[in-house]
Amino acid sequence: MERLARIARKLSDASVKRYNNPYAEFQWPQDLPMDQWHFAPELISLYGLEEYAALNEPQQKQLAFWEAVNFFGINIHGEKALIGGLAEHLYYMNWSPELSEYLHHFLDEENKHMTVFGTFCHRYGKKVYADKKMALPRDYAKGEADFLFFAKVVIFEELVDHYNMAMGKDERLHPLVQHINQYHHNDEARHLAFGRELSKSLFEQWAPTWNEQTLAGVQAYLSNYIVSTWREYYNPAVYADAGFDNSYALYQKAWSAPACRAHREAVSANCINYFLEHGMMTERPAL
Ligand SMILES: [Fe+2]
Ligand SMILES: [Fe+2]
Prior knowledge:
The protein has helices spanning 2-17, 22-25, 50-53, 57-88, 97-125, 144-168, 175-206, 212-231, 236-241, 247-256, 258-277. The protein is mainly alpha-helical. Bound molecules: fe (ii) ion (FE2) (2 copies).
C-alpha cells in the first residue's frame, strides 16, 4: 500500500497541474457537418462485414456518426457507475489519505467527462442510447467487491482508451471529435495507472484469504464483464438509426463475425495480459 500511496500522490500532483475546465475547453458548433467522419472507419463495429463494404461513403459516415453517439454513451454509462463506486471508496476503511485525495480527482475528472460526452450526445444525436448492463445483487467474500469494482474500472477504461488514443490524433475526423477523444485520453492515462496498481494491490491483499470457489467466481465474473462490455459496442439501435432495417440480425452477425472477434481480441490483449500476468485472471476470456 505504500507504493500505491506514492503513486496516488504523484497522480494527484499531475491532476492539479492539468486541472481543466470543460466549459472553457470546448466550443460546440450548432450543427455537425455530416460529410465528415465522426468515428474512425476501422473502429466501426460493422467494419469487415460485407454490409459495411456495401455502403457508399455518405452512408458510412452516417453510420460513423451514430457509432460516435454510441461510444460516448458507453462512456457516460460506465462513468456513471464509476462515480458511484469512487464516492463509496472516499475515506474508506483504513485506506491511506493519499488514496482519498486521488479519488477526489478521479471523481471530478469523470464527472467532467460525462458533461462533455452528454453535451455531444444531446446536442447532435438528440439522445443517449440506453444502458444495457445489469447487475444482480449477490454476496461477496471480504475484499472481493472492492477488487472487482477496480478491476472492472480497468477493463472499461482500457477498452475506451484504445479508441480514444486512435481517434485523438486521427486527422480524418472532425476536429471536435478528435479533441474530445484526446481530452479524455489525457485524463484516462492517469486513471489507468491508478486502477491497474490498486486492483493488483487489492488482489494481492485479499486473494490469499479467498477459497477456490471465490477465486473461480472472480475469474468468471471478470470474463463475463469484459464480454458484456464489448457487447455494448455493437448496438442494434445504432444500425437502425443509420438506416439498416435488419438491425438485430446485423448485430448478431457482427458479434459472431471472425473479423470482429479478432478486433476485440487485439484491443483487449494488453488489458487481459496484465490480469493474467498478475494472476487476477487464470485464462483468456472467450471474446
Ligand atoms: Fe472518463
Ligand atoms: Fe477515467
